[in-house]
From TrEMBL:
Residues 23-76 form the Histidine kinase/HSP90-like ATPase domain. This is Protein containing ATP-binding region, ATPase-like domain protein. GO terms for molecular function: ATP binding; phosphorelay sensor kinase activity. The keyword Nucleotide-binding applies. Keywords: ATP-binding, Nucleotide-binding. GO terms for cellular component: plasma membrane. It comes from human gut metagenome. Signal peptide: none annotated. The keyword Iron does not apply.
Length: 105
């Protein structure tokens, strides 16, 4: 909310508190990146959803939007170590680092 004050984000978290061994700053950055991408690209009036589930040995965090989605071809490029695409106007390479970081974690 601090970065995008008018963002419509619905947050649903379990009531129980768990400690998970992880790099908190890295996870925070990945979640922020995924939320920002969802807000930027979904073009939907519905809220972005952030929620988590807790299993005996895992905690899973989800970021869900109601946009048109990403083609399988783009998903494969976003999850690789090569630039995802090059913009036509500037020739700038787009790396989609949020997808790559999420995959590596």
């Amino acid at each position: 909310k601090r970065r995008i004050p008018d963002a419509n984000i619905k947050i649903t978290l379990p009531d129980e508190f768990v400690l998970v061994p992880m790099d908190a700053l890295l996870i925070e950055q990945v979640i922020i990146n995924l939320l920002e991408n969802a807000l930027k690209h979904s073009h939907s009036k519905k809220p972005i959803e952030l929620y988590a589930t807790i299993e005996p040995k895992t905690v899973t965090v989800y970021v869900k939007d109601y946009g048109i989605g990403i083609s399988n071809d783009k998903k494969m490029r976003y999850l690789s170590l090569i630039p995802a695409e090059t913009t036509a106007l500037t020739g700038t390479r787009v790396w989609a680092l949020g997808f790559l970081f999420a995959r590596l974690l």
